[in-house]
Amino acid sequence: MADQYTSRNRISLVHSGEDYFSLLIRLIENARYTIHLQTYIYENDETGRKVAEALKAAAKRQVSVYLHVDGYASQKLRGKFRIDLEQAGVHFKFFEPLLKSRHFYFGRRLHQKVVVVDGIFSLVGGLNIGDRYNDLPGQPAWYDTILYTEGEVSYQLHLICNRMWRKRRKLKDKIIKRDVEAFCDSIAKEERQMVRVRQNDWVKRKSEVYNSYRLLFAQANEAITIMCSYFLPGRTYRKLLSRAAARGVKIKVILAGKSDVLLSKNAERYLYDWLLKKNIGIYEFERTVLHAKMSVADHETVTIGSFNVNNISAYASLELNLEIKSKEFGIYIQEVMDNVISKDCKRITRENHISSTNVFRKAWQKFSYMLVNWILTLFTFYFKQED
Hints:
Radius of gyration: 21 Å
Order of helices and strands: EHEHEHEEEEHHEEHEHEHHEEEHEHEH
Structural class: alpha+beta
Distance between the termini: 18 Å
Shape: globular
Helix content: 25-40%
Number of helices: 12
């Protein structure tokens, strides 16, 4: 079952920019049977067109290619871009197209970012397809992290993508399960890692990522480090973080210094006083825009994916994370995050937290916080949970 840890996996951390897109193109070019690509934002720009050309080339050599993008965030892909893809043999689909959705759940968006090739190779993280996530001349990529996985969990992701693509009848699957099993068995025992899929879709009664974070905060004994691009924990998460801090858990949060959503950033800074009062370390990433969503607890439990620690991810969007249970990998991820803190972050203290002494700025941040919560309520109050 997808909610259980699988053991026959080989994993590595991939960063945004050239690191990610060169690997993505290589996986597409080497695909033999099936490619699933799901993303929130797909831009018709230099990077988007390069990926599209690779997908079209794969389709022309008889690989089954399925491109599933969000109907709101990727709505610019209508017209010639989509027609060219479909004429090349790429199966293209919008998730919940605006004004055409059967439910019109405007706030329920396809926010997860998943790539699966041949049911064996996968990429899961927070990265969309577009120039801002790539390294271009004079433009460093937004900082993001992705988990590259080979093995058992990739096949589970393949089945999830199949179900999402066509709910009422199964796709004709070219992948031979025994070939997948043979590949999984070939992974050396010393390389194997425990990984499981975690999904969130409140409408479909899935709160796996939400519950993973809840348990991570509740059960940590030593340390929690959170890297999050849009950090607005709800009441339950704040209570759990407060209790963790009270029992001596060392908590650090790495947040965006530069943000593409200023309203969200102002709302986030409204919580800084609360975080500082609870002795939770705040570090603002300054090198470029932070877009990663990754956390580690007690140097052992790691979660990476599209889920932000906020109520939009918890109660509105479709999200997907991979959770890894590994002391070796957990220590490595902690080192990565500590390195980011030391090289690329500014620590926020009571002394340099301007809004703590600036009444007008603090009032604006409080208004932003209330407005963000109001917008979430406005776009989700009519949601109904389905079976």
